[in-house]
Structure formats: C-alpha cells, structure tokens
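Please check what follows.
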Amino acid sequence: MTTSSIRLLHQLMFDVPPEEYSDALAEVRRDMGGHVIAGGTTAEAVKAAALIAENYVDMDSYLADLNLKDSARFGSRALTDGQLGEEMTRSYEWLQTFGNARLCERTKHKREAVLRSNLLKLARGADDGTHSTRWGNDYASGLRDAMQKGAILVTTNPVLIGLAAAEAPEVWTPVRDEIRAAHPKAKPEEIAALLTIKVVVGNARLLRPIWEISGRHLGYVSLQLSPKDAFDADVMIQGATQIYEGLCEEMGGVPNTVFKVPGTKAGIEVAAELTRRGIGVNVTVSFSLPQQIAFAGAIESCSTAPLSFRTQMDGRVDDPIGEELEAEGVADWEEVKTWATTAIRQREYRLLSMLPQDGGLGLARSFSLGASGRGPWNILRSICNGPRTMFITVFPNRQVEFDAEPRELRPEALWDEVPADRLAKLQKSRLFRQAFEPDGMTPEEFGTYLPVQRTLKQFAEGYDNFVAWCAGQRDKAA
C-alpha cells in the first residue's frame, strides 16, 4: 500500500470520533469500490482491496482499543464489540464482492491470528491493570502488524535497517536510490543516516497517536546512529542534537523519539546531557546491574525528558554466560543460562523501580526495558505487577514463537524465585557475577565487559555493511 493508504488506515482508527466512524468507513468502502470497478485488477484496485482488508483486521485488534472502544475517553460514545462486528461484516462482504478469494482467506486468517495472540493478551492485560508490562517491536519494519497485537514502541538502528533491507530489497532498494538521487553529493554515511531517519519518521508517525493518547508515556521510536562512536561523548551529543532538531522540524513539534546511548562510560555523560536538554534516551549495549545503576542515577539527577529507557540485552549476556558455564563443566548450562537475565532483572527492578516503602528507589525518569530475548521465557519472566512499567521489545521471529501456542501470562512472574541450584551454578560465571552484583563493575570497566565488546563489534560490522549497501557497493545489506 502507498503511504497515503497507510495514513488513511490510521485516520480511520485514530482521527475519527467513534460516533462518526461508521459513516466514514461506509464512505471509504464506496470510494474504494469505485477504484476497483474503474481499475479492475490494476495496482490501484489491489491497493484498495488491501486497504479494506487491513482495516477489517484493525477493528478486531488492539488499534480499536486505543481509540474507538475507549469508554474512559468517550463514555457512551465509545463503540462496542457488537457495533464494530457489524462494520466488520460489511467490510468482509465488500471484500467478497470486490476482492478475491485468496485475499479474503488471508484476511480471515490474519484476524484469527491476531485474536489468538498472546502478545495481544499481554497488551490488554497492561491496559486493564492486571500487570504493568508492555511490549514493542524490535525491528526496523513490520511495526503496524505488531501494533495490531499491542506493540506500543519500536527499536530501530542502522544494523536492523540493514537486516530489513537484506530481507526485502524490493522494498528498501528504491528508497535508498531515491535518497541517493536527491542527495548526489552525500557521503555513504550521510545516506545511511538519511535512510535511518526516514524509517524513524515513518515509524514515529505510526506511533504518534499512541504517544498523544498516552500523554507521551507510550509510542516511542528508539533511534541509533553510528555505533562506532560509542566511546566519544562529544560526537554522540553533537550528532544526536543535530538529528533531534531535524526530527522536530519533520514532525512539526517534539518528536516521539529517544536516542540510543551505549552503556559505556562516555554514554553516561551523553545520557545526562541529552536528558538535561529534554531529549529522551534508551540506554543500549547494557547487560548489568552496575550499568543500570550508573545510567539511572545520571538520568534521574537532571532529566527534563518525558521518558527514557534502560535496556537490558538479555540474550547477548545470557549466551556468553552460558559459554563460561559450559567451560566450567556445568552439564545443563543451556538451561541454566536462561535464568541469568531473570536474576539480574529481578534485582534491578527491586532496587530501581520499587517504591521506597518497599525497599526500592522508586525512580520515575527512566524505565527498565528487556530486549534481545532468545525465547518465550524472556517475555514470560518479565511480566510483573510492580509500580513502574516494565517494557520489553521482541524480534519478529520471537513474536511468532511466543504466539505459536497458548501461554499463561502470570502478573507476578517476575517475582518467581530463581531456583537455588540455578543461581549457584550461575555464580560459577565471572560474567554473571559482574552483571549481578551492584558493584560488579566500575564505569571504567563497562567498555571492557565482554558482552559490550562483542555487541559493539557486531554492530560496527553491521553498520559498515549497511553503509556499503547505501553506497551501492553491495547488492544486499547485511
């Protein structure tokens, strides 16, 4: 679908008051029917049918919860499931008339998949106060599909955009070429930055209604520039400031974006300075309680930003911990390592997010965010009923895995005690001890922590591949 079609989808779900929705949708169906009749099987006709099909799914998804069904905002004007069901019937009848059998079948299956989604159940549980965990998309594309299942934030960076480009060159190559044509004298790094910003702005516009409805608490896009500047605070501050100014102009006001800041000593200075200026951050390349404490303190002391995140990259620390456990002769190291970030997250949340009367610091300017999960356990063990929101981002393949079978979402899961034998075995890993103990590392040691070194190396290589693709030196980004 075209950008205008996607915007029309959003206008129907977010910009139309509930009492006007039926008439607005009826008008769209009439207009789209005209496109199909006039165009037959042309591209415009296909787009028209796809638009109605997507809106059909929207009406039974989380998107309807956020606006049309919100009784807290609209009272008796809010639409009921029955009213939306009637509109869905009309849209499906439209599809049967103007679409094709394959589209109808795909649309039906997609709706059923959304309704079965554990992630949708997770999102709705956060809304009704059952728990305080919310989730987002950990990829550069596919945001709107994730939003139908309750995603309320997204992570992007040059590496993720490069992966998306490698998977769908037919989508991304024309975008790259358009930017190169518009900026013929731009360096490859500048093309990479412009393409990253284009993706960020597109995602930010999709999430903008959620950002507005939630009072700027939800609906953020995490933006990362070159990972090769992770040890240069001045360069990071200057780059983020310049991009932020451009985003303000592009979005027509404060952008619903935060900047990824690496969990290095230099990153602490960057996080403090950007949040002091009112620019939110997302601390990334972060794996340990010492990093969480250092960055939380820097943000809390001077932040004027609406919201910031402190990411813990689960799998990227669990994996090397597992390597150490295997070397130590721990027979069940593959299972034991899955408890590493669970143990770290429990301690981190108790210390930083719980209220003072419950033994915590009750920090309010930054929030815990789990990312880079390796399996359903990373999601299930991050569900909590604490006083502060726990955020998680999930790769698309992990979203599919999590939704593949019914799962019990326990609000108190975060507090499940780590089995004593698992914790004892984890203590055999030096990497785990460094991450688990509040004083396990000093800020000067953050940059030499093995998961930090590995992640920055991989990110830098991915960034170089992405820049080469932006320069047209590779057929595929990697």
About this structure: The chain has two domains: 3-113, 118-470. Residues 3-113 form one domain. The longest strand covers residues 257-262. The mean pLDDT is 92.
